[in-house]
Each structure stands twice: as structure tokens, then as C-alpha cells.
């Protein structure tokens, strides 16, 4: 399954410009409804709108418009960063909403004698975005050689929520105590 995802991503990257590849890499982990080509198009529209606004202001307020031009260009240039920040905030909000239910599900799996790693893998298969992606990544990190503690620390860095820190810290302490 992971191999198929990687092949699809590589196929996508072959047909993209350098700028579009950069956008794809930045937005890949988010639930993004726009393709890199569309995002580049939106950014180009933002540049055009900036120029039109500048010209309109130049006619109405004269030289003062030159002071606003760098601001318009800056916001057009940063459009993709603003969009990525928005996607990140949506991801964190969804994660925060889903996490309590996921913890209950995780605990139920542990009570059913699954290991934490197996529980991560199972939720990674059946969960919803973004929990699914994060738990799948934890499972993949552990399966590819990262220690349990390192996988949990990386998880805490990706999802900076106090509930995630408590959850991860508890699992780390539990794993140390059981060994």
C-alpha cells in the first residue's frame, strides 16, 4: 500500500515544474483539495491582482501607491505559505477533535492484548485524516527502525498539543517500565 502511494507521488512529481514539486512536498501531508498546478495558478492570480490594485491606487492616490506596492507583492509571494499555514491549522483542529475518541479506541486495543505498535498500525489503517496519517507514520517509523521513544518524540513535534504530549509521555514511560 505504501509502495503504491510512493509510486503515485513519483509519477506526479515527474510531470511537475520545480516550483510545483516544492508545493507538492509542502502540502502532501495535508488534506489539500488543490493540485500544485492550481496553487501556482492562484499565486499568479494574486500577483496580477496586486498589479491591478497598484494601478488603481496609483490613479486614485498617486505616489502613495508606491509605498503599498511592496506590501501587495509580499502578500502575493507569501500566498502559498499562508495557505500551508491554513492547512496545518485545519489539520491540528481536526486532530484535536478526533483525538479523545482515538485514545479510547487505542486503550480498547491495548485491553484486547494488542501491542501499542499494533494499535498504531490498526488505527493507521482504519482511522480518519489526520489521525490515520499520524498513526500510520508512527507505525512506519517504528517498523523502519526508529525506537518507540523516538517515534513518540517525533509525533509530539508534528502535533504540538498538550494531550499528545501527555499521551506520548505516558506511552514512553509505560514502555520503559515494561522493559
What report would you give on this structure?
With 179 residues, the chain is mainly α. It contains 9 helices and no strands. It is elongated, with a radius of gyration of 22 Å. It starts with a helix and ends with a helix. The model has no long low-confidence stretch (mean pLDDT 87).
Measured by DSSP, the beta-strand proportion falls in under 5%
Straight-line distance between termini? 32 Å
**Helical run tally:** 9
Q: Evaluate the radius of gyration.
A: 22 Å
Average predicted local confidence, pLDDT: 87
Shape: elongated
> Which class best fits the helix and strand makeup?
mainly alpha
Largest sheet: none
Record field, number of beta strands: 0
What's the helical proportion of residues? Answer: over 70%
Uncertain regions spanning at least 5 consecutive residues: none
SSE run: HHHHHHHHH
Short description:
By secondary structure, this protein is an all-alpha fold. It is built from nine helices and no strands.
Helix and strand arrangement:
Elements: H1 2-14, H2 18-27, H3 36-61, H4 64-77, H5 79-111, H6 116-126, H7 131-143, H8 148-158, H9 162-178
